[in-house]
Amino acid sequence: MHGIRVALLQMGSATKATLCDRAGISFPTVSKMISRMEKSGEVFAAGLDESSGGRRAQRYVYNPDYMLGLSVFLEKNETVYTVFNCLGEVKEHGSCKGFLQDGKGALMAWIGEVLARFPKISGAAFGVPGSVEKGRIFFIPDYEEFQNLDLQGIFEGRFGIPAIVENDMNAAVLGYHDRTGKDPDYSAAYIYTGKNGPGAGLLVNGNVVQGSTFFAGEVSFVPLYDEHNFLQAMQQEKDRKGIVNLKAISRLIASLAAIINPHEIILNNKEFHVSQIENLKKESAKYVPTEHLPDLALSDWREDYLHGLQYLALKRILRS
Q1: Dihedral angle sign, alpha carbons of residues 34, 40, 42, 46
Q2: Pairing state of beta strands 149-150 and 136-139?
Q3: How far apart are CA 236 and CA 240, in angstroms?
Q4: Which string of b and e fits 12-50 if b means at least 16 CB within 10 Å?
Q5: Whole-number pLDDT of residue 269
Q6: How far is it, in rounded angstroms, from Cα 7 to Cα 61?
Q7: Which of 27, 69, 130, 287 makes an SS bond possible with 254, Cβ 3.0 to 4.6 Å?
Q8: Which residues have C-beta within 8 Å of that of residue 206, sequence separation ≥ 6?
Q9: 3-state SS of the chain: helix, strand, coil percent to 5?
Q10: DSSP 3-state assignment of 57?
């Protein structure tokens, strides 16, 4: 079923014979699945192909509105969400108050309202500013009620809908990778200073690096100075001047270049300006030879974050 869904969405339309080749499934199995999907409204017949001398083949298209997805990211002062179909077309986009401070009860009540409006939601993805292991949030400073919370288990148990919970920066780097159409073996680091403290999403050869204890990307703890880690250096500079510490960022860029050697490092365009890029490159070159430094790119973090959550939710939906 998953192979047929993916093939139809990627190809736009296909015959049963084409689906056999594309998905690597036998013709009888494809016929059985297509018949079932057509009866439920998941696929539609789209007319007959031109004859090549034999019987004309029926062509099928996927109904992108048969299942909808929900993506939600939780921030300190707001919750942002989208409802979308299997082609990524947005049915509703909005924001409301920050449930991280109101607690899980308020969050679940609000989700129930969204699901009542969109009963076709068949999968969800949640993004949080903390470390996540298999749906459980185990490191999320300042939000005690969400500490050690199995958000995936609670959501699935209450609503019976499959879900995934992901760290915000992991979702953002995935979203940037998918949205910009980078090569499959692309490596990158996405740095965000954020309202909840700095973090990074690491992508190596197209795969998110989560680490042995799912703590990868918590760059706040990187000891860039004798007496200060990265978070402390950032806070010290902001307290004095109210600006981002470019020297600390440059040291972090150099560290990432030496450790994972990414093609690119992405920065949030709401935190950095294009005029700062050259300074960051010059500062980073004090520690790492220029030829080994990654390209620096500016991007819309919110857009990448939401796209990454949609990407994760859609993968979950198509396997349901």
Answers
A1: positive
A2: antiparallel
A3: 6
A4: eebbbebbbebbebeeeebeebbeebeeeebbeeeeeee
A5: 96
A6: 10
A7: 287
A8: 177, 183, 184, 185, 186, 187
A9: 40, 25, 30
A10: coil
pLDDT-based confidence at residue 54 (cuts at 50, 70, 90): low
* Residue appearing with tokens 């396997």: 319
Q: Considering only CA atoms, which of 134, 113, 249, 275 is closest in space to residue 192?
A: 249
Please list, in sequence order, all residues whose beta carbon lies within 8 angstroms of the beta carbon of residue 29, skipping any fewer than 6 positions away.
none
E strand or H helix that includes residue 97: strand 90-97
Helix (H) or strand (E) holding 232, with range, is helix 230-241
**How far is residue 177's CA from residue 232's CA, in Å, rounded to a whole number?**
30
Q: Is 307 helix (H, G, I), strand (E, B) or coil?
A: helix
Confidence of residue 243 (pLDDT cuts 50, 70, 90): low
The string of pLDDT tens digits covering residues 278-287 is 999 999 999 9
Q: What is the mean pLDDT of residues 19-24?
A: 92
SS3 assignment, position 283: helix
Residue 211: other Cβ atoms inside 10 A:
11
